[in-house]
């Protein structure tokens, strides 16, 4: 039994059906198979090269992948290339999934990482329970962002998706499917914790995570509302924070405001997707508030495309704005070096616009070639989503990103 595909993907027929079968969380099997253990193995990958015209910084897809396109290299295969493998098991009401992904990381390696590892129990036809490492259901493409073959674009819009680089949670969740007023609904609640390796012995941990995701569908229209909260535990620039605390009330106030350790972080978002088959239109917006020097941001995008047989030209406009200051000027003159250090950290808050155009060619049943060009402009004195920023970088100066990618599943 083919699992239900993500609404955006269904018109791609057989090609995206392969991705849907590979990536769907297991648990649905035919009645005559229910008593017999069923094992399935598959995988996905992307071979891509990226060029950035910005020579004072590197273009990055997420903060956990420093990219290397731009300042470090004229063309880089590190930004989007990855390889993933997935093993699933089904028997009666029980199922399990293990997914491992290898992609460039902050340690400048492609060390495999366990992305999913969970066991699922189908309590009723409509209620399922899982325990283990679970994909965070925060955005429309949460389940598919690593397997770019299941996306219309080369990558998910960085303004939104790179704002929350963590993609999974170690914990439990429950999903209930129900219908009302002609709508097909799916409500998911979760609890757990997660962590991300930031290199140089620095880890970001989120504890006490609790969240929900609710999706309603009516014909070709689907709407998803999501929210999650947790306590962020990491120490960024601890010497700077400690020095600010020695400066009296003004310094203490800044230290309390921008300290990253033990702060409550929240994400609230909504996504809309309309896909009648020949074309698609989707949009998402979310607020990500870390209540620290990591920022309080609102980010979103709108994207559309038209399908001409094997070809799908598309366009994307995305934007990220800061809801908190990216520069402060409240300390006395003698503390100017500390204020400058704090402002340097705040300048990494992603205030940025992007306009993208591309085309997808499904040249094989299980492979697609994508060409994409992004016109990107960091704003507000920030470096946007760029990494490895060098002296002489100018905020407000636009640059271009050209990407060539082959996505596949097996």
Strand portion, in percent?
Answer: over 45%
- State the end-to-end CA separation: 18 Å
Poorly predicted ranges (pLDDT <50, ≥5 residues)? Answer: 1-21, 25-33
Mean pLDDT: 89
Whole-angstrom Rg: 22 Å
What class would the helix/strand composition place it in?
A: mainly beta
| Largest sheet composition | 16 strands, antiparallel, barrel
**Helix segment count?**
5
Q: How many DSSP-defined strands? A: 19
The spatial strand order of the largest sheet comes to 1-5-6-7-8-9-10-11-12-13-14-15-16-17-18-19
Order of helices and strands: HEEEEEEEEHEEEEHHEEEEHEEE
Helix fraction by DSSP (H/I, runs of at least 4): 10-25%
- Global morphology: globular
Which characteristics define this entry?
410 residues, 16-stranded antiparallel beta barrel, disordered N terminus
Characterize the structure shown.
By secondary structure, the protein is mainly beta. 10% of the residues lie in helices and 49% in strands. The protein contains 5 helices and 19 strands. It has helices at 13-23, 158-161, 238-244, 249-258, 336-346, and strands at residues 38-52, 58-59, 69-70, 75-76, 82-91, 94-103, 113-122, 127-135, 168-180, 183-197, 203-218, 221-233, 263-274, 279-289, 296-306, 311-322, 352-364, 367-378, 399-409. The protein has a 16-stranded antiparallel β-barrel with strand order 1-5-6-7-8-9-10-11-12-13-14-15-16-17-18-19. A hairpin with a 2-residue loop joins β9 (168-180) and β10. α3 (238-244) runs antiparallel to α4. It is globular.
């Amino acid at each position: 039994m083919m699992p239900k595909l993500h609404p955006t993907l269904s018109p791609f027929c057989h090609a995206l059906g392969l991705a849907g079968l590979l990536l769907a969380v297991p648990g649905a099997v035919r009645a005559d198979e229910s008593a017999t253990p069923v094992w399935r193995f598959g995988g996905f990958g992307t071979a891509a090269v990226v060029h950035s015209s910005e020579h004072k910084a590197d273009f990055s897809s997420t903060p956990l992948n420093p990219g290397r396109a731009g300042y470090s290299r004229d063309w880089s295969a590190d930004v989007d290339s990855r390889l993933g493998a997935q093993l699933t098991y089904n028997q009666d009401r029980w199922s399990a999934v293990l997914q491992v992904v290898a992609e460039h990381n902050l340690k400048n390696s492609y060390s495999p990482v366990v992305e999913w590892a969970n066991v699922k129990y189908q309590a009723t036809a409509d209620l399922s329970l899982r325990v283990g490492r679970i994909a965070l259901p925060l955005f429309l493409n949460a389940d598919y962002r690593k397997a770019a073959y299941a996306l219309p674009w080369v990558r998910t819009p960085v303004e939104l998706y790179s704002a929350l680089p963590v993609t999974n949670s170690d914990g439990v969740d429950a999903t209930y499917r129900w219908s009302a007023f002609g709508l097909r609904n799916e409500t998911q609640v979760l609890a757990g914790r997660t962590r991300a390796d930031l290199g140089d012995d620095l880890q970001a941990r989120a504890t006490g995570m609790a969240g929900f995701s609710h999706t309603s569908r009516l014909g070709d229209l689907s709407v998803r509302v999501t929210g999650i909260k947790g306590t962020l535990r990491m120490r960024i620039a601890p010497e700077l924070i400690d020095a600010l605390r020695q400066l009296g009330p003004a310094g203490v106030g800044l230290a309390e405001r921008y300290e990253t350790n033990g702060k409550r972080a929240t994400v609230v978002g909504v996504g809309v997707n309309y896909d009648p088959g020949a074309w698609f239109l989707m949009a998402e917006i979310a607020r990500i508030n870390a209540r620290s020097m990591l920022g309080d941001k609102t980010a979103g995008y709108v994207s559309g495309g038209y399908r001409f047989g094997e070809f799908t030209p598309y366009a994307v406009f995305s934007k990220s704005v800061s809801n908190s200051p990216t520069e402060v000027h409240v300390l006395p003159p003698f503390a100017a070096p500390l204020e400058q250090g704090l402002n340097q950290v705040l300048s990494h808050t992603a205030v940025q616009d992007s306009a993208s155009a591309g085309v997808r060619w499904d040249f094989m049943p299980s492979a697609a070639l994508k060409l994409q060009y992004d016109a990107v402009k960091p704003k507000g004195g920030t470096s946007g989503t760029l990494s490895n920023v060098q002296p002489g970088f100018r905020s407000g100066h636009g640059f271009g990103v050209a990407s060539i990618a082959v996505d596949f599943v097996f």
